[in-house]
Please model this.
Amino acid sequence: MTATWRLLDSGSGGAAWNMAVDEAVLQEYAAGEAAPTLRFYQWDPPALSLGRFQDPPGEASLDALRREGFAWVRRPTGGRAVLHWRDLTYAVVVGEDFLRGSVVETYRRLSAALVAGLRLLGVRAELAGEKAGEAGVDPACFAVPSSYELLVNGKKLVGSAQVRRKGAILQHGSLLLDFDPLLLARVTAPPEAVTAQAALYAARVTSLREVLGAVPPYGELVRAMTGGFAGTLGVTFHPGTLTAAEEDRAAGLAGRCTEAG
Amino acid sequence: MYPAHLRYSEEHTWLEVDGDTGRVGITHHAQEALGDIVFVELPQVGDEVTQNEAFGSVESVKSVNDLYAPASGKVIEVNEELVDHPETINKDPYGDGWIVRIQLSDPAEVAGLLDAAAYRKMIAEE
Model:
């Protein structure tokens, strides 16, 4: 029997709300109250998301974020800073019983779904090797490819992170539609390091605009990526909305979220 | 891989009982599934922990995973070495990679934990 998942197309939201919804869906799923879910969303205003255990942004980063009118938020997941500027963010919430195996094995399976979705958009992405990255001290997620993250011509296109709680997995990640290395450097690096960091990001990070020459419309992106997940994981998607309980949880969490803007 | 003198929880933690206290860590299987651990969030001495509830978390490969207490009690010692060297858990999960020591509040809970053979069987069936 084919598993049925809920498809949530959330459109654009604020940073605190976006993270609160992912967390709320995870909590409801862990409590046995939600269906496995694939969610897509964007960020308005753009925002820097930080890993659960990262230090908060320094003064220079905060100033840069303020000047740009960007927010920042802490993710429930691990990893490093991601600038959600012109990106499509996906989130998967599912049980460890469906997505079995080690952390790296689950990345590999979900990355295969992302690769399939990108192929529908005409992008040929490959997976970074298992022993890739993770070492090093760069504060930005996109500076270093981790195991099974998506590369095009050796440059990172999607960055993902996970949290697991009581048998439930939340993995979310950012597919870059467009990329501005200087902008990322300004909001993550101290002023004296901005130029060097921007050059490094330019060499290591790509975007759909760079690969395809243009950014496909939002609806086409969501359709293609959903198709990638459906085919790779063997699941059927039904468009849905948040339950009342998820809405309540998310509203409570968003109120508590760290956000500055 | 699974020392016989330890007791194991279904959430992949171990307990080494010593009188009415016990040392807690994660199993070889758990550290292998997590991959390279880069951060450990520890409780504080004096915190109360409850069996099967989260008492801290570890991050590996950008994945944050809760740690579940194998037994209830009060935290009397935490392994501060893990703050600077979280990878110790990967290298020596039953020795230098221990995480906390707790004052056991309900010794009867220990009887409900798995022995090494039962834990091995459980992970083989996963």
